[in-house]
């Protein structure tokens, strides 16, 4: 039995970080994906282990099912159809499993991703032998939501064959989830994100699951479908960063300067709200595309309204400096699933 899933990355247009503290943020999916393929072993495979292959980093991990069964306390042996947070006790069990892997120092950032995988796998699928292969078009740790798309794609693949969701198993090609199932995928993905990010707002997994452009505040989202096809030029400076540490840093600044930060977050909230109303206003009835672009430019303080030729030149120049550019279509669909051989 095999299933594949793919979930998009994201860009946050306004409200990054402030959204963790209750401000509105506006985010869009981008058409760069994390893919998960899940293959359950059959008795004839004579396989009794859980394997995780991370293609980008050429790392492969394998746990005998008996080892995983022994690591988790009795309570997690029952499969959970409702998303559960990883308890301190289970986090310790997972940390021990990950430590045994001896992940090379340079790739230690992956430990949190592997931990999220172990939590989602054992919670949703229990102790079944399987091979999970992850590939991603997203650079890891660059602000494009690789962790969220990893968690959303994992949750989607892990839930696909369970009774918790109802999917047409005979469907050929990519298939979207229904509203209720999508909510479940998103909630499980959020539990994975918590393991990777510490204190995520949930915006990254939500935009990865639902796709399109969303306005998000304290877990509530407003969907917006872009009326014009938009593209973003995204540049990867290749300067490493860790979202969990950044989020914690903002939290500490909030504690040091609560009054000032309250103003900052309130200003960000207003910017995101204004951006939301611009994006939602029908074109060309209320605002022309140009007017919209000008307002977005002003709000985002950056203008990417460049012609194709200029973009090519900018890309060539940036790449000659050693940067990596992605031209990403934004606002596309969210997580999808495919049974058997997929396109
Ligand atoms: N394809 C993947 N394979 C394995 N682990 C992954 C993968 N994608 C993401 N991760 C996990 O997520 C971590 C990166 O998450 P982090 O939140 O720091 O950055 P990001 O999600 O790319 O950026 P941001 O959250 O700011 O948008 C990696 O170090 C790894 O643990
Ligand atoms: C930095 C942040 O706002 C987005 C990470 O891409 C964190 C979050 O919302 O969880
Ligand atoms: Mg992340």
From TrEMBL:
EC number, UniProt record: 2.7.1.36
Protein name per Swiss-Prot or TrEMBL: Mevalonate kinase
SUPFAM superfamilies linked to this entry: GHMP Kinase, C-terminal domain, Ribosomal protein S5 domain 2-like
Source species of the chain: Glycine max (Soybean)
Keyword Thylakoid: no
InterPro entries: GHMP_kinase_C_sf, GHMP_kinase_N_dom, GHMP_knse_ATP-bd_CS, Mev_gal_kin, Ribosomal_Su5_D2-typ_SF, Ribsml_uS5_D2-typ_fold_subgr
GO CC field: cytoplasm
NCBIfam families in the cross-refs: mevalon_kin
Keywords: ATP-binding, Cytoplasm, Kinase, Lipid biosynthesis, Lipid metabolism, Magnesium, Nucleotide-binding, Steroid biosynthesis, Steroid metabolism, Sterol biosynthesis, Sterol metabolism, Transferase
Superkingdom, natural source: Eukaryota
Coiled coil: none
Protein localization: Cytoplasm
GO MF entries: ATP binding; mevalonate kinase activity
GO process terms (BP): isopentenyl diphosphate biosynthetic process, mevalonate pathway; sterol biosynthetic process
Pfam families xref list: GHMP_kinases_N
Similarity comment text for this entry: Belongs to the GHMP kinase family. Mevalonate kinase subfamily.
Record-linked PROSITE patterns: GHMP_KINASES_ATP
Gene: LOC100820343
Pathway the protein takes part in: Isoprenoid biosynthesis; isopentenyl diphosphate biosynthesis via mevalonate pathway; isopentenyl diphosphate from (R)-mevalonate: step 1/3
Gene3D superfamilies: 3.30.230.10, GHMP kinase, C-terminal domain
Record domain GHMP kinase N-terminal: where: 125-211
Catalyzed reactions per annotation: (R)-mevalonate + ATP = (R)-5-phosphomevalonate + ADP + H(+)
